[in-house]
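Lecture 7 notes: from sequence to structure.

We start with a single chain of 137 residues. Read the sequence below before looking at the structure.
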Amino acid sequence: MDNPSRLLKVSRYVLEPSVSGLALVREFLKATLMPFPPAQPHVYDILSATHEACKNAIEHDPVARHPVDVACKVFEDVVVVKVSDRGNGFDPDILPPQPPDPEATTGWGLFLIYSLMDNVDIETGRDGTWVTMTKRL
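Now the structure, written as tokens:
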């Protein structure tokens, strides 16, 4: 985001490391985004991408003890969501992800994130992973 427009709202949510909490993240994002008419047509893309990023963070934390941080910034012309975890990271050579086999029942997360959002930046290492997703309004 080179020249950010005016910031309208910042919201943060800390997700406990359980898949059952994913519905709460979706409700948090809906409550954050729906008051802004320019964001409304994009809410379900943003929800789905964020859900996948959070699900990956939870599923790939080998001991499931670290919370996942979700920050959402709503600007006049863009929404930026950052999902941060403290897991072991992953091999960045898989980025950008290739389409999974159409018959696959797993492995769709990163592909969907990249497909649904306008820009995705992922930093990963031994201390965690930071997924920053941007959707133009």
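The chain has a mean pLDDT of 90. Keep this in mind for problem set 3.
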